Amino acid sequence: MALTLSVIIPSHNRPDLLRTCLASLACHAPPGTEILVVDDGSPGGSVSRAAADFPAVHCLRRPQQGGFCAAVNEGLRHARHPIAQLLNDDAEVTPGWADAPLAHFADPQVAAVAPLVLQRRGGEADGPPVIDSAGDRYYLGGVAAKRGHGQPLGPDHLRPGPVFGASASSAFYRRELVLRVGAFPDSFSAYFEDVDLSFRLQRAGGRILFEPASRVLHRVSASYGPPCRRLLAQQSRNEELVFWRNLPARDLTRALPLHLAVLAGKAWRRARQGLLIPFLAGRLAALAAWPDILAHRRRLTALGPERPARHWYVEGAFWRA
At 207, is the secondary structure helix, strand, or coil? Predict the structure, then answer.
């Protein structure tokens, strides 16, 4: 029996982008797909009004903005179908984009599937395709990165296979497993929340796959706008939290020197940009959350045994599995 899909779109005060996203779903969604927009406290209900233009779309309205994680978690709790795709409101789906990912979930060990996400710059679909993400990777030193980001589309990123993680901008998830491992961390609000979830899905025995036959277009920089100091501090905090919350204890001794080198390199780069203070503020905020980090690590033991880092799909210069 074919698995049925729920598409969850968190959105805050971007009705024009949302309409474009929903129009692509209206054209290409498989029969029976549930399309669920979560209006994350948009002023005047602008997102809810945009969603109402599409009769097949159901909209949940949050009374106040809670951030990406809170909006997505609410959508996951309300979704009706076993597979849920998270889709940014600045993304568009393409014909047949859901077919191959849904087929992968026939394997009960598959926890998530990452589509091939291509950049859509300035609203133009023409020109050589450029990759936004081909799944996620994680360096032992504490760096998360999008595979292939900014590279021209080529043979290396047209092969399906296992990856460390899937970007929450467009990933397909086994809904029940995501909820069972604790869903997205509300305290993160946004940034690196999908990396944190990928650790937990793997800890619970799940596999994460990359599927290039599934293609999503993403408007680069539309999601966050220009960086500000508050957001840079939040990014810095969350990246540090991911490392300490999830890295297997048996790998910490090997990882710590690499992590210190990563911190030094990032601090030097931020200092040259005049952004050292928000970078340091974020890292210190993460360390101040040490009681929560320890509590999270204790909860991980209920998900399954620790697996050493050689079981991850890790790439790059810092360490190779």
Answer: strand
Determine the Cα–Cα distance for residues 233 and 275; give it in Å rounded to an integer: 9
Q: Tell me how far the alpha carbon of residue 254 is from its chain's centroid.
A: 27
pLDDT per position as a tens digit, 86-136 = 999 999 999 999 999 999 999 999 999 999 999 986 544 556 799 999 999
The predicted-structure confidence for 245-300, as pLDDT tens digits, reads as follows 999 888 888 899 999 999 999 999 999 999 999 999 999 999 999 999 999 999 99
Structural domain for 122, as ranges: 5-219
Say yes or no: 199 and 252 in one domain.
Answer: no
pTM of the model: 0.92
User: How many angstroms separate the Cα of 80 from the Cα of each of 111, 142, 144, 201, 299?
Assistant: 17, 36, 31, 21, 27
pLDDT digits (tens, 9 = 90+) for 164-179: 999 999 999 999 999 9
Q: Is the same domain home to 180 and 264?
A: no
Give me the long-range contacts of 246-249 (CB less than 8 A, separation at least 24). 246/196, 246/199, 246/200, 246/203, 246/300, 247/140, 247/142, 247/309, 248/306, 248/307, 248/308, 248/309, 249/306
Number of domains in the chain: 2
Collapsing DSSP states into helix, strand and coil, what is residue 246? helix
319 inside domain: no
- Within this chain, do residues 18 and 153 fall inside the same structural domain, yes or no? yes
Is there a domain that residue 312 lies in?
A: no
